[in-house]
Amino acid sequence: MKGNFEFRTKKSNRSLWVIECIDPNCSWRLRASKIVPESTKFVIRKYVGVHSCSLLNRNANHRQATYVVIGEQVDPQYVGVEKGPGPKGVQTFARTELGAQISYYKAWRGRKHAHTLIRGSPEQSFHVLPSYFHMLEKLNPGTVTRIEVDGESRFKYLFLAFGVAIRGFRYMRKVVGIDGTFLKGQYRGVLLVATAQDGNGQCYPLAWGIVDSENEDAWSWFLTQLKEIIGDTDELALISDRAPSIKKAISTVFEKAHHGACAWHIAQNIKNKFKCADIMGSYWSAVNAYRCEDFTGYMIEISNRYPRVAEYLENEVGFEKWSRCHYPGLRYNITTTNMVESLNSMLVNERDFPYVALLDVIQEKMSKWWNDRRIVATAITTPLTPSRESELRPRFAQSNGRHTSQLNPITYHVKGGELEGVVDIFNKTCTCKEFDIDKLPCVHAVATAHHAQVSVYSLVSPYYTKEYYLLAYGETIYPVGSQSQWDVPNEVVTRIVLPREVKEKKRGRPKTSRFPSVGEFRKRKNRCGKCGAYGHYKKKCNSQTGSTEGNPPTNVPG
Question: What is the 3-state secondary structure (H, E, C) of 209-251?
């Protein structure tokens, strides 16, 4: 192929393969046959390796440069990387390494074939899914997996929660964020995720699911599985956007848990619906207010300037859904679903993977997180996690100069600063409400601890301690290994899971990017006025071709 010589097959059957140069006058040829009739291996019997044909017969558009050959040659560049080269990169590879000129479409098919060789086909993924889940459960005790199919054994939903994460949830604050993100593979679907936040402020994924779309039935099924592993108590808080399907599913499945709305999504709705971005400062102050008195002051500011916004926040959304001080449960300092969005963005390059390959990436990332954070937890030298320790220490300096007086054996009055506080060190409360909600000593509580000669760490919630942080990541998430090493019962292997039916494919390039959410803006790439390329300005252009003003750019992406 590098020499641009093409060949054609003269004879081919189960026991013989004969090829020769495309020029009938050329002496180049190869003959191979089976070693023995029963064997599957061929041996070369005759080979004439010198071409005697004219150079005019050489062709860079090689007939043997099929997408299968291209994919087999380029597939090492996709092993162990998140993305790998795109179709144009495959074209460059074929030209420089194989000496073949291929079309963009053939490069795209070759790239897709390379992905299939490494990750398996989407259809194969459905077939192997029961065996994959069996191995996860076998190697990771306590892991919960579910596969839901319809009456024709076609895939509907799946659910995965690692036993390590389920057991570690007891050391997490009982606040769970839930959200979904669309998948871009052949069979599409939506990836659902439920995650907590550890004592160091990091994502702690609890459960994953794949469903057909974000509808009420799919969310109800996913939340039902989630309820089985985390329970349903008054202490539990579920945070999500205000999608009707999620709201209704939560109210149906969880009877005791409290539902909170993501304050960021509400902010985007306000800016889009009422065109009042200048009120966002007062809105976020109201979101984060610990005391209802402060909250009321911020709402008055909003109402005076934008009465319709105040009415929307109070009547349509409800204060109890987004306001920290009005929330009926305990959501600590978690007011948005950022922890879920972080997980979604983590998988931005893997959303077109077959389902099993995608789940394998999730397992690999979670295994790394658990190991890395276990190492960090072991090295901590303070009673609290690093983020909470850094948050608490400035309060020691702020507590200096505060006057503290004892009111009774458990209650203290702290004066000084902008706000006075009455602290109950037994019930761990303060009239400023910061201690009550965050469960981390406020300035008043720190001053009280110093006056009462008690350790300030004794007033901190155990969820923020090094001990809980280490226990949360004390176990290991194990991979399933190569499929050839799996030991799966026959009843699992023979379980039929067929691909879901998909709508008829539309013409043109498949869509791989979603429409932006309300209030979400995407940064537009700059286009150079000199060379027409994207990503830089004319002043920073390194092109030596001169100005192209008046001419269409030659490298506009498309």
Answer: EEECCCCHHHHHHHHHHHHHHHCCCCCCEEEECCCHHHHHHHH
